[in-house]
Specification:
By secondary structure, the protein is α/β, with parallel strands linked by helices. 29% of the residues lie in helices and 13% in strands. It contains ten helices and ten strands. Strands 1, 2, 3, 4, 5, 6, 7 and 8 form an eight-stranded mixed β-sheet that branches. Helix 1 packs across helix 10. The longest helix has 15 residues. It is globular and about 65 Å long.
Length: 338
């Protein structure tokens, strides 16, 4: 729970890019950081953050428009280089994602992880780096999928490191964290790149010895919570789901029944145009609700997702687990501000 974190950061300012529904931002809030501004280009995601945190300065902006972003940020945090706070952001990861490409035939042209050649999202990492180099925050976080390390044989990530080191940043080695070892009841692997301009060493958060199982998620009452609309399945689907063992997959519906003794499989986002998806409940023959999926991330029960149900699933599945974000935030404070 985010309530278990002590707000040690004492309002160190943070600027968030590619904020999505606010998962990483909730983590930094729990650690005591204060949000100077959040930048997100999808209106629905902005609506969700504003609904839950009306006091936060959420901007509907596109990071790829570098000059416009510099102007907007300069008015907010000042034009002087040497921002006292932290920049955090996870450029959209679909071009680097193995999971995204598993939707395609492996022999097809769409299977290759085109990475930085992606016309929409591929260059956003370097647009974000350009903002880091311009404003020179004390520290920054780049969050992504581990596939970012492999694209182009690692050449692009190596270029990013060299760019940031040339700008005066001490870089921590790429850090791959498995969320189930960081108080998250879910198999979710993320890459974090962290640097600082103080010449200090980043002290990474310590993992748990055993992964966290998903059982506790289904022991809590769902009475009165938002985003708990469950899907109505056909009789044929329910009968198939009833025959599945823990951890088994329904091949027709391509959904997995969760095993309560183990972490959940990765919460699925689904696309912005397709239907929302979720795993199967371990005890009930149905798919999970948005709220149940959000608990696996885990988001607080009072954090409400706006928009159609399918897009609520997208917001939950795209997010950095807030509890993992809080541990990263706490480690940044301990490493660079204490």
């Amino acid at each position: 729970s985010l309530n278990n974190f002590t707000k040690k950061a004492n309002n160190v300012p943070v600027v968030s890019f590619f904020s999505g529904a606010g998962g990483l931002d909730l983590g930094f809030e729990a650690a005591g950081f204060s949000h100077a501004m959040l930048v997100e280009k999808i209106p629905l995601f902005c609506e969700t953050i504003k609904h839950n945190r009306p006091d936060w300065d959420v901007r509907l902006n596109d990071v790829s428009k570098t000059e416009e972003m510099i102007s907007v940020l300069s008015r907010k945090i000042g034009a002087k280089k040497g921002f006292d706070g932290v920049f955090v952001g996870g450029p959209p990861c679909q071009p680097f994602s193995i999971a995204a490409n598993q939707r395609f035939n492996k022999d097809g042209a769409n299977f290759k992880r085109i990475g930085f050649a992606h016309k929409i999202n591929g260059n956003l990492l370097f647009e974000y780096i350009a903002l880091i180099k311009h404003f020179k925050p004390v520290a920054f976080v780049i969050e992504n999928v581990p596939g970012l390390m492999d694209v182009d044989g690692g050449k692009q990530l190596n270029k990013a490191y060299k760019d940031l080191e040339s700008a005066g940043y001490s870089m921590h080695q790429p850090m791959i964290l498995k969320a189930q070892y960081y108080k998250v009841p879910q198999q979710r692997t993320r890459l974090f790149v962290i640097g600082n301009r103080l010449g200090k060493q980043f002290l990474a958060p310590n993992p748990m010895l055993k992964p966290l199982s998903v059982a506790g998620v289904f022991e809590k009452t769902l009475r009165g919570v938002k985003n708990h609309l469950t899907r109505e399945h056909s009789t044929e689907s329910v009968l198939r789901y009833m025959q599945l063992g823990f951890g088994d997959r329904d091949k027709l519906g391509r959904v997995d029944r969760l095993d309560p003794l183990f972490p959940s499989k990765t919460v699925i986002a689904g696309g912005m145009s397709g239907g929302g998806r979720s795993h199967l409940h371990p005890y009930i023959p149905r798919t999970l609700s948005v709220r149940e999926s959000a608990r696996i991330q885990p988001f607080p029960d009072d954090y409400v997702f706006t928009g159609p149900v399918a897009r609520q699933f997208t917001q939950v599945g795209n997010a950095v687990p807030p509890v993992l974000g809080a541990q990263i935030a706490d480690a940044i404070f301990k490493s660079f501000y204490r």
